[in-house]
């Protein structure tokens, strides 16, 4: 069971996972050593599974951010999944979902031409609905 201090630690780490334990402790009213112990316990218990970075796709030249709902005609999804593995440079996330489709792809593309080629290739394995992010 997490207490308010643990929740505060998770909140602060989600904003900045590179914060020092001393700074974290100050924000949640603990010593740096006590904060480090709490973080270690959260990691050991599997509450904190890892740390990640947030990448600015625009600065990497990928100006098109798309969500693609995948609709397969068959319950055998392996051809689609094999195709997706060959397209990892464009895939941010591939979620298996319930509802209107089978998967939800979050993708990034540097150009409309590459997006179009991706969609043409994808259409050999599944149908799709495309949504483009206009603003975040």
Explained architecture:
The chain is α+β, with helices and mostly antiparallel strands and 136 residues long. The chain has 5 helices and 4 strands; from the N terminus they run αααβαββαβ. Helix 2 packs across helix 3. It is elongated, with a radius of gyration of 20 Å. The mean pLDDT is 95.
What's a concise summary of this model?
With 136 residues, the chain is α+β, with helices and mostly antiparallel strands. The protein is built from five helices and four strands.
Poorly predicted spans: none
Strand content: 15-25%
The neighbouring-strand order within the major sheet is 2-3-1-4
Shape: elongated
Helix coverage percent:
25-40%
Main sheet? Answer: 4 strands, antiparallel
Count helical runs: 5
Class of secondary structure makeup: alpha+beta
Mean pLDDT: 95
Whole-number radius of gyration? 20 Å
Oligomer: single chain
Number of strands: 4
- Separation of termini? 34 Å
The H/E string reads HHHEHEEHE
């Amino acid at each position: 069971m997490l207490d308010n201090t643990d929740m505060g630690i998770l909140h602060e780490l989600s904003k900045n996972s590179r914060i020092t334990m001393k700074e974290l402790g100050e924000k949640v009213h603990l010593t740096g050593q006590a904060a480090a112990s709490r973080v270690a316990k959260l990691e050991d218990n599997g509450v904190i599974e890892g740390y990640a970075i947030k990448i600015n796709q625009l600065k990497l030249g990928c100006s098109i951010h798309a969500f693609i709902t995948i609709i397969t005609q068959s319950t055998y999804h392996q051809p689609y999944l094999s195709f997706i593995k060959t397209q990892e440079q464009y895939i941010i996330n591939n979620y298996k979902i319930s509802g209107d489709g089978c998967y939800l792809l979050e993708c990034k593309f540097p150009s409309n031409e590459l997006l179009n080629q991706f969609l043409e290739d994808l259409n050999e394995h599944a149908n799709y609905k495309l949504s483009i992010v206009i603003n975040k």
